Amino acid sequence: MADPVRIPAPGVLLPGPSGPKPRKTFSARNIMIYGTLFVVSVYYLLPLYVMIVTSLKGMPEIRLGNIFSPPVEITFEPWVKAWATACTGLNCDGLSRGFWNSVRITIPSVILSIAIASVNGYALANWRFKGSEVFFTILIFGAFIPYQVMLYPIVIMLREIGLYGTLWGLVLVHSVFGMPILTLLFRNYFTALPEELFKAARVDGAGFWGIYFRIMLPMSLPIFVVAIILQVTGIWNDFLFGVVYTKPDLYPMTVQLNNIVNSVQGVKEYNVNMAATILTGLVPLVVYFVSGKLFVRGIAAGAVKG
Known about the structure:
By secondary structure, the protein is mainly α.
């Protein structure tokens, strides 16, 4: 039975609503926050806008000098030329060859580095051996050594094992240089997981690989996404290693982009240069947009914990 409605006595006020006072939508605080975000967004998006509209214009329209105006007549010819016929040195096959070279470099490098680093992090977090902390310290110290210091020694090492100037040599370099920071990420993530799961699996008789594949991997999707994004972005955007450890036929996309943009022969085609730049950056952008939420989850779940 419902409670009877109580009518207050004459002159007695009912208690008002409780809780914090609602904030104004256009308060000074909100205006400052959203105004700052708007200015920062414009600052970063304006160059991208200029690149896109310039890549869709013909050269006669670009010579008019108004870089912010939208194209009067949209043309995709600069994109086609950047992909298929732009000259990079003696070759005039555009970015297509460099794109496939980058794919052949990035995929095995990402798989190899993440596979090894995840096992390293798992072992350092749950199967600590004598000297594991010293090993981990040395491994992390390697992440802060400037790449330029090790360029020539690595050239000699790759030459001695017969991999200098090959794609697999560059894959090996990317895998080694990506391992320290990835090991740190995986170690911190596995340390943050409940230790009771590991102990229960040990009691049930599971071994090193059984716990890794049956328990740790299914729970580690966010940190794997973080590792994939970091490696894909770093390897795909790399220029230094690509130009040092490969030869012209095997140059990645970034090296070919540099050759197109800095070409000193003929007319400077700004629309082709802008289209080539956007094409080169599409893969990391797509990876971020597809897996952005998992990236944030992975960072929050363990990548910044010690």
